[in-house]
Every structure is written in structure tokens, then in C-alpha cells.
Amino acid sequence: MASEPLRLAEEYGPSAGESELAVNPFDGLPFSSRYYELLEQRHALPIWAARFAFLEQLESNPTGVVLVSGEPGSGKSTQIPQWCAEFVLARGFQKGQVTVTQPYPLAARSLALRVADEMDLTLGHEVGYSIPQEDCTGPNTLLRFCWDRLLLQEVASTRGTGVWGVLVLDEAQERSVASDSLQGLLQDARLENLPGDLRVVVVTDPALEPKLRAFWGNPPIVHIPREAGERPSPIYRDTIPPDRVEAACQAVLELCRKEAPGDVLVYLPSEEEISLCCESLSREVESLPLQRLPPRVLPLHPDCGQAVQAVYEDMDARKVVVTHWLADFSFSLPSIQHVIDSGLELRSVYNPRIRAEFQVLRPISKCQAEARRLRARGFPPGSCLCLYPKSFLELEAPPLPQPRVCEENLCSLVLLLKRRQIAEPGECHFLDQPAPEALMQALEDLDYLAALDDDGDLSDLGVILSEFPLAPELAKALLASCEFDCVDEMLTLAAMLTAAPGFTRPPLSAEEAALRRALEHTDGDHSSLIQVYEAFIQSGADEAWCQARGLNWAALCQAHKLRGELLELMQRIELPLSLPAFGSEQNRRDLQKALVSGYFLKVARDTDGTGNYLLLTHKHVAQLSSYCCYRSRRAPARPPPWVLYHNFTISKDNCLSIVSEIEPQMLVELAPPYFLSNLPPSESRDLLNQLREGMADSSAGSESSSVQEFRDPCVLQ
């Protein structure tokens, strides 16, 4: 039973002394010398002791589900996929490829690079990865690393899933929406197009093991032995520092002054604080009286793109990696010997009752705190400085990370579940069931967008919406642009809103501020985004051009790729296109109509002429973001009375981001009548109802006049 894959597995890893000409069974070429160097490192990983137990369970387990439980840094994410590839190879490639999901695109790319190196294969051939706007796979790809949300989208769309031999759901303890949803669909056997003998491997931290064991019906579990290195004893502060960034910087500088060996990993709550910390440290370390090269400060967060690979490069200088929750479980860095932990994370939590996101600063879980501490284990152990009292986590921290399915807008998920013909999303199994009001709000919003029919199933429009890798309201606006002849502009806007939503920091100089103002459009932030994109393309996608204006070059490149994908998708499903007409008066109105068709749920009215906006769907008051083009106009410019916005975030200043002026008549004309009727009582609703009645009377009068003209031929003369 298990003998064949086990025997093959042994043949894949001969030592250099046994055979310098041993052949790689995946591509038929001799192994390189680097393969043997990396093989020695792999043998030293804690997971290697569980190798044969895992392969035996994968081969012989009748349920097809195997749980793998081990601590961060044990080698789970790099070795399990390779062993699954060996398993598929032993079957003669008859049962398809190995797909490995990751909760973050950066992790999928980084792991594919590392695993291809360890397997002595070419990235993009036998080993590849699929992340947004980047598909590095080929027809011969056997092992694919994939962002879990992209895989969920593939599962639901007509593009299908290909043929899977083994599906590895890695980092299950991260509790991403897509990972939890895929487990629910697989557990319910809802994926009818998958092969009957599909093997599912769920890889997790030990803290989530009991919950997963109960969810999957007590499947076999492969336990990874603990790493032999000693664990550092955390050093706690007596109080929480008032300035986390300053406290973290001082702790790093103290380690540098002592010239303690090893790299440093700093955990802060948000990307903004990561940037501030990196800027401060980069200035300070240059002036330190050190015997060796000054440390190199490296940020690690989702916007880093391919630059994240720098954290893995061998350097003569010490590395100081500044990150947040992204590196709690992903991105194992063996060179780390010192950890500085703020104990906090900044997360966006969606409130379905008011259709808004909250920026929540909260304690990390006990599971995350332990994972961070283990980054510094070794012989001898490193150090772990906690910028908080010991009682802080004991009293306030939950045992496990919060499931994201209970904290995100579920519209996109419900749309995909409906595509899989799951009539009642509430009946789908989840590790933790979403709140009923979150599911109801998602269904209500999809109904407003005409994505559901009278029976609650997907309408024809809903099927098309589910094809797009966009939020449902943005996909609806893109489809509406086909009717209003502004597809070219809306394609640009959809890509920019998804990948590169404008300026994210204040200008650093008067010159930069002037360059930014030149990109602003009088019609609002949406037109400004189109103008930014066109100027970026005209610059030849120049990185220096972006830096001079405070724009994210990598994000704009992603927007360019996404626009191409969206255009290709529209052509594939034979949707009508239109020629560019940006800047004309007719195009301005057409673009507004397309936006209102998708974003009528996100409209606000200035109630007093001073920029205090009351949101239509609930009675929250918000202000325009400091990056809004209307805010940068010279006084006494009056804020627009009615606006459409892309996001509303409840934080210290309750901001509407990416805002454009609209006419209320357009809202009455294009929003569903029952949506206007269901708005909460307010002066804004009364004004809209008056407009609707006036437009109805005008329409009735126009029809009556037309009938009279038809009946009286003398009038026509």
C-alpha cells in the first residue's frame, strides 16, 4: 500500500556521496550540488521525523483527510507539499496535481520560490504559483502554490479547478475566510467536480488541532516533534509604552549597541507604524558606533510585493525585519534570534448593521504570542522582549486568532456559495458560523444589486458578477458601463479601486504636493484615479515618477495587470466594449451613472454645508478623507452636497474615502425603488422621495402629451 511512495521517496534524496549523477524524477535531470546542500538542511527540520508516517497516512487513510499539527518553523509549509508531489508522482500523475493554499499571496510566492529551489526544479514549470495578477504556472506544473481566495474563486467560476490529486490547506490556524469556506465545502462534499479519491491535507498549529479534529470527524493526525532548540523566556515590560514605535526602535538600537548576534524581528500593529519604525531605524543605525556594517532595516507587509524576498537573502549585515500579523505563522526566518513584540494588531472588522469597517486595535491571541516567541528559539536561545506586562495577555488575549469569516463583509462569499448552488449559505458548515445578520445583510445587498432572482437563486446577472475577481458592487458598476458606453474608463477605475486606491500618506514636501495636485480631477476622486493611471502609463510605468508623487509603484503595476485581466474576461464572455472618451461631458455623466448603478448603497449627503455627511443607509456622520481631492481645493470651495464613496471606515475621524459628487436625480433614476423605500427615516430620504414623485409626475405628463399628439393629427402638422 504505502510501500511504493515510501520507496520512491527514499530514492529522491540520495546523499552526494552515494551518487553524484542521481536523476531528479520530476524533470529527468541530474541533481545539482545545491540540491544536496539544501537536503542536509531539510533533514535537520523537526518535520523530517514524521515523513514516513505522513506518507503512509496519505496513501492508506480511507477518508482521504489527514491533519498535520506542528509549531511554526518546524518545516510544515515547505516539506508537506514536496511529499505530496512525491505521492502524486508515485501514482504516475494519473490523479492530477498538488495544490497548496496560502492565506497571503506573498506567502504563496515565497514558498514556491523556496520549494522549487529545494526540489532542484524550475519555477513556472514543475513548481509554480497563482496569486492575483500573477500566474506563474505551465502545462507541466505538478505542484502549485495558490492564494486561498483565488482558489475559492476558481472553484465557484466556470473556469473550473483542473484536476487535483492532493489539496493542501496550509496555515489553517490563520482562519481566513477562504480557508474556512473551502473546508466547509469539502466537508459537505459540495465540490461535485472534484475526483472521488481526492486527498485533503489540513496543516495547522497545535492550538487549533482539537477544533479541526472535531470538525473533520476525528481523522488521523500526524504530529510534528518539537524543535530541539531551547525556547527563550519572554521579558515583559511593567507598563505598555505610550509610543510603541519609539519603544521598539530603542529596543532594536540597544541590541545593536550590544552587538548581540543574530537578526531581529519586530512586531507592530499596523503598516503605518511599520513604515514609521523603518524610517526611524534607517536614520538611527547609520550613526551607531559599530564594529561591522550597520543593520539593514526591512519592512514585511502585504504591500511589499516581490521586495519581500530580501528578508531571505544572505547578508553580511544584521537584518532587522519589521512586520505585523502577516508573519505570525508565515515567513519562517531561521536567522532570527531576537523578537520584539508589541502584543497588538490593527484589524479591519466589518459591521453588517451599518455596512462599515471598524479599525480595531486589539491584543493578539495567546496562540500568536507563543508563535512570535518561538521565532527566537535555538542553541542558545535568543531573546523575546514583550512591550507589555505579563498580565496584559493573560487577562485580555483570546486563546486563538479571531475567525475572519466573523469579521469580514460576506457579500463576495455568499455570491460564490450561491454559484455553487448552495441555496442557504447559513447551512454551509464553517469552523465558526458567521453571525446570521451578516449573512442576511449580504443576501439583502445582493438582492439590491439584482444578483438574485425571486427564488433567492443567482440571476443571470449574478452569474456574470461571480465571474469577476471584484467586489459585487464594483462588478455591477463595470457591467453597467456596458450600457452607458464608458467601459474603457470603468475598467481602469475597477483595477485602480482594487489594486491601487490612490494616495495613502501625506505629501513629504511642497514639490510633491504640487505634483499630486496636478493629478487631481475636478469631477472627484474616481476621475482622479483614472487620471493617475493614464499619467502612470504615459510615464512608461516609471518607478521614479511614482516616488516623486508619493504613489505606490508596485500597486500601480498590479492595477495595470488587473485591468488587462478584466478586459480579457469581458472579451471572453462577449460583453460589449467602448472606445476611450475620458474628459468629455457625456463621458463624465455616463461614468457617474455606471458608478451609481453599483454603489447606490454607498451615498451620503452633506447636511449642513460644512462637510458633515450623513450616510443614507444609516445615521452615521462622516467626513471626507484628508486625501480627498475636494479637501485640497482652495477656500471658499463648498463641499459637494451629494457624494458617492468607495469605503467608509469608522476610526478616530470616521472617513469617507474615494469620493465623487453625484446628482440625487441620478440616484432616484438608477437605484431600485424598494431600496429607496427601505431607507431609514431622514431628511435625505424625504428629498429623494420628493424627487421620485416629481419625476413620476413629469413622466406621466410626458406620456399623456405624447398620446394626445398621436390622437390629434392637426398637432403634428
Automatic annotation (TrEMBL):
<protein>
    <recommendedName>
        <fullName>ATP-dependent RNA helicase homolog DQX1</fullName>
    </recommendedName>
</protein>
<keyword id="KW-0547">Nucleotide-binding</keyword>
<dbReference type="InterPro" id="IPR007502">
    <property type="entry name" value="Helicase-assoc_dom"/>
</dbReference>
<dbReference type="GO" id="GO:0005524">
    <property type="term" value="F:ATP binding"/>
</dbReference>
<dbReference type="InterPro" id="IPR014001">
    <property type="entry name" value="Helicase_ATP-bd"/>
</dbReference>
<dbReference type="GO" id="GO:0005681">
    <property type="term" value="C:spliceosomal complex"/>
</dbReference>
<dbReference type="Pfam" id="PF21010">
    <property type="entry name" value="HA2_C"/>
</dbReference>
<dbReference type="GO" id="GO:0004386">
    <property type="term" value="F:helicase activity"/>
</dbReference>
<keyword id="KW-0539">Nucleus</keyword>
<dbReference type="Pfam" id="PF04408">
    <property type="entry name" value="WHD_HA2"/>
</dbReference>
<dbReference type="InterPro" id="IPR027417">
    <property type="entry name" value="P-loop_NTPase"/>
</dbReference>
<comment type="function">
    <text>Might be involved in RNA metabolism; it is missing helicase motif III and may not have helicase activity.</text>
</comment>
<dbReference type="GO" id="GO:0003723">
    <property type="term" value="F:RNA binding"/>
</dbReference>
<dbReference type="Pfam" id="PF07717">
    <property type="entry name" value="OB_NTP_bind"/>
</dbReference>
<keyword id="KW-0067">ATP-binding</keyword>
<dbReference type="InterPro" id="IPR011709">
    <property type="entry name" value="DEAD-box_helicase_OB_fold"/>
</dbReference>
<dbReference type="InterPro" id="IPR048333">
    <property type="entry name" value="HA2_WH"/>
</dbReference>
<feature type="region of interest" description="Disordered">
    <location>
        <begin position="694"/>
        <end position="717"/>
    </location>
</feature>
<feature type="domain" description="Helicase ATP-binding">
    <location>
        <begin position="57"/>
        <end position="225"/>
    </location>
</feature>
